[in-house]
Design a protein that fits this description.
heterodimer; A: 49 residues; mainly alpha; 2 helices; 67% helix; elongated; B: 780 residues; alpha+beta; seven-stranded mixed sheet; six-stranded antiparallel sheet; 27 strands
């Protein structure tokens, strides 16, 4: 029971972290151009954004 | 990694903008479309439809970033757009324009704000965020619930229920909003939709579980509330993404239209002004190759006018001083100065838009299959829950037990599978059509397309490509190939382009000529080896030729070529049928549909096209009003009409028909009015779309059957009081997964397989080749 008091907040905290990260990535426009992102990985240019 | 060379087009654009005056106009046009960002920079957006791969993206970005005044340039491949942030004080928009041109891409500026697209994007984001919140809550609550179902001791179980509640309440409050809003809207109208039982079940389950947890009860449905929302939000998000994708693709096709015009000021200066600032009496310059912005009268200059998008006439019309011209027609051969007679809002175009609105208002509201289903399902569920409540209250007298069972019925019947049944099929179907270059605007079009009993085609631009093709050459064209090519290259006239494409002429060495000039309304003239040569209208060419007379067969138009004193060469041109037009019409007829042509063109070409396609019912010379009247007549006979058309003159009938299709080459208004837009030249898009729609309809019905089957088992159990939260979680997930997997089958189906074997054998090889070609293109 004592263990749960630590584990549950940890589990929920990690989940919330994941949710927060997703919402941040959505807001920062990382899903705006999925096709482009898939293609850009093929570019040889290191300095390209 | 360069898959797309648009060099020819780039040359043409470069050539067009060579004159300094045009550059200034272009600058004004570009600045008109740009907007200011927060940090004092200017942002210009360009549509670049030719951008296909990373090579194109980096090429454009590098060129733009190399400009000293450009802060950042970013290409977006999904939307085929390039966004440039630049310093307006020490740079010019024309340089940006030129950089994209130099990279070899056709492009058009567009005003991001004018599209009002940010609205749609934020809805998509909101749905995705809701989905993420519901997913987070569902996963965590499910973890806690599993330990409760596995047999946690009562104190732990209650703690877990309370934690679940703390997660579920904000999650439902946030992620449930799309459903609550829609349910409230439906109730306000006095109707029921699927969202009413959904909202009711979620809210009741939430409050009951909260009560149970606080009073030390053993069962809570927190997991059911949030998983329900999670599944349903998947359906919503997919639905939204599909519509956004189609809309984005359609707006991508727009933007090449003139949003402004070159206004000639009284002092002789020329400025590019927005179209809304043009009033009657304004003098406007229209260059060759531009569309006429408003209804006007020609003041000076002469040219040929392509009216096919406006009237459906395939033949070009010569215009001169005093001629009245409509907005939307294409000026082909020479620059003209025109005087506006009406504002843009009152031009021919707006008349069409008014007719479209009238046609849409007159159309009986189509009720989607999911809503028809909801109209039966929602009351049935509510009655069953009420019956369960009353039955248990009478049988046991236990209020708590009666309420508990009634809520269990509501949860178990919550139309999770029903909510997914339609959108998943439609998204899979839309993606299937997308692979073949067909964009469908919303799911309702699938349902309507499957009901069609008659197909009505427009001729020019729909059954045909809307550009002429040489069908017969009278004379020895090969002997003068170089000379003909030189003259033909000079003109914007579609007939010249068709002649230049002939096998005997394309690729030959250009001949030495002097003083090449295009005489609008007549043709092109030059001096070669001291003799005059002409390519153009037969009467005019025959003036210089030695003998020969104009011979015309059928209704085809004739273009002539002659060297002074020599025998003329006659090119007979006709509006070429779309590839696969005959196959498509045959396939449609085989599957039991009536085909009909409604055209604005002259009787000759219409009858010719009809006989080549084997369509017996063809009506020529129709104006938009006649077309609508014919559609109304058919509809009053109970026919469900699929209208395929492209022109401005078709737009009202596209809006009036049960369901409509337009090619990507259609007028903006036509494309917006149509439910489906096909981007490939082949007309096989029409039977293919219908085929997929029929299959989609079948899968939707299967999904409903699955969902009802599930309910037939689950409802008696729930009413008998056997349902536990564990049972609810398993039953609901299983039914949803069954429905989704069944829907996925639509994507696996090969094109042409299924309902009509005649179409299968004929068109399947073509289509598979086409999609294979598309695959290669994507892989390149």
């Amino acid at each position: 029971m004592n263990l749960l008091i630590v584990l549950i907040p940890v589990a929920l905290g990690l989940g919330a972290l994941g949710l927060g990260a997703f919402i941040w990535s959505l807001k920062s426009g990382q899903y705006d151009d999925l096709e482009g992102a898939a293609e850009r990985i093929l570019s040889d240019d290191g300095e390209e954004p | 990694m360069n898959c797309c060379g648009a060099d020819g087009m780039a040359d043409e654009i470069a050539g067009k903008s060579a004159a300094a005056g045009r550059l200034k106009l272009r600058e004004e046009q570009l600045l008109l479309a740009a907007h200011r960002t927060g940090d004092g920079m200017l942002q210009s957006d360009f549509l670049v439809p030719g951008m296909h791969c990373v090579g194109c993206m980096t090429k454009i970005e590098k060129r733009l970033n190399a400009l000293p005044f450009v802060d950042r340039a970013r290409a977006n491949l999904s939307t085929r757009r390039v966004s440039v942030c630049w310093n307006g004080e020490n740079g010019s928009a024309v340089d940006i324009d030129q950089a994209i041109t130099d990279a070899g891409y056709e492009h058009a500026p567009f005003d991001l704000a004018a599209l009002a697209e940010n609205d749609g994007e934020s809805t998509g984001r909101r749905l995705l965020t809701s989905l993420a919140v519901a997913g987070f809550a569902a996963a965590n609550i499910m973890l806690l619930s599993i330990s409760v179902w596995a047999g946690a001791d009562p104190a732990t179980a209650q703690l877990f229920h309370l934690i679940s509640g703390v997660i579920a309440i904000p999650a439902v409050a946030y992620a449930g909003q799309p459903f609550f809003r829609s349910a409230i809207a439906a109730l306000k109208r006095g109707g029921l939709n699927m969202d009413v039982p959904i909202s009711l079940a979620v809210l009741l389950a939430l409050s009951m579980s909260l009560y149970e947890s606080l009073t030390g009860g053993q069962e809570a449905y927190f997991d059911a509330c949030v998983t329900l929302l999670f599944f349903l939000l998947i359906g919503r998000t997919l639905d939204h993404t599909m519509r956004e994708k189609a809309r984005g693709a359609v707006t991508r096709l727009m933007g090449f239209a003139a949003r402004g015009a070159a206004l000639l000021q009284p002092d002789g200066a020329v400025h590019f002004v927005p179209i809304s600032e043009i009033g009657p009496g304004a003098h406007i310059l229209v260059a060759a190759g531009e569309r006429v912005p408003v209804d006007a009268i020609v003041v000076s200059g002469a040219s040929d006018l392509d009216r096919s998008l406006v009237t459906g006439e395939s033949e070009t019309v010569p215009i001169g001083k005093g001629a009245e011209i409509e907005a939307g027609t294409l000026n082909l051969t020479g620059p003209v100065e025109i005087e506006a007679v009406r504002t843009a809002e009152k031009s021919f175009l707006s008349e069409i838009i008014q007719m479209m609105e009238a046609a849409e208002n007159g159309k009986a509201g189509y009720v989607r299959i999911a809503d028809r289903m909801a109209a039966i399902y929602a009351p049935a569920v509510h009655i069953l829950a009420a019956l369960a409540f009353a039955g248990w209250l009478i049988a046991t007298g236990d209020w708590h037990q009666a309420i508990y069972t009634a809520i269990a019925v509501l949860i178990i019947t919550c139309p999770c599978a029903l909510g997914l049944a339609v959108p998943v099929v439609h998204v899979v179907g839309a993606n299937r059509l997308f692979r073949d270059g067909i964009m469908i605007k919303d799911g309702a079009a699938f349902e309507k397309l499957a009901e069609v009993t008659r197909v009505v085609f427009d001729k020019t631009g729909t059954l045909t490509l809307g550009r002429p093709e040489v069908v017969r050459v009278d004379g020895n064209a090969a002997a003068f190939a170089g000379l003909i090519r030189t003259l033909a290259a000079r003109s914007h006239h579609p007939a010249a382009a068709a002649i230049a494409k002939l096998d005997t002429i394309a690729g030959t060495v250009l001949a030495e000529t002097e003083s090449v000039a295009e005489l609008p309304g007549f043709g092109v003239q030059a001096i070669s080896g001291g003799k005059r040569v002409r390519l153009g209208r037969p009467e005019w060419v025959l003036e210089i030729s030695g003998g020969g007379k104009k011979t015309q067969i059928n209704s085809n138009s004739v273009t002539a070529f002659a060297v002074q004193g020599a025998l003329p060469i006659l090119f007979e041109l006709t509006d070429a049928l779309r590839p696969d037009a005959l196959e498509a019409v045959t396939a449609l007829k085989k599957s039991g549909l009536q085909c009909e042509i409604l055209s604005g063109d002259a009787p000759g070409p219409v009858a010719d096209a009809a006989s080549r396609l084997g369509i017996s019912d063809a009506r020529p010379g129709l104006v938009p009003k006649d077309k609508i009247a014919r559609l109304k007549e058919l509809q009053s006979k109970g026919e469900k009409v699929l209208m395929a058309g492209d022109g401005l003159n078709d737009a009202p009938s596209l809006a009036a028909a049960h369901v409509s299709m337009a090619p990507a080459s259609a007028s903006d208004v036509g494309r917006l009015a149509a439910d489906l837009v096909f981007t490939r030249e082949s007309l096989s898009a029409v039977p293919l779309a219908r085929d997929v729609a029929i299959k989609a309809g079948r899968l939707v019905r299967q999904n409903f059957a699955l969902a009802i089957f599930y309910n037939c088992i689950a409802i008696p159990l729930a009413m008998a009081g056997f349902v536990t939260p564990l049972f609810a979680a398993i039953a609901m997930s299983t039914s949803s997964i069954a429905v989704v997997s069944n829907s996925m089958r639509l994507g696996l189906m090969r094109s042409g397989a299924g309902s009509n074997p005649g179409y299968e054998t004929r068109a399947a090889p073509d289509l598979s080749q086409e999609s294979a070609g598309h695959g290669r293109e994507a892989a390149a």
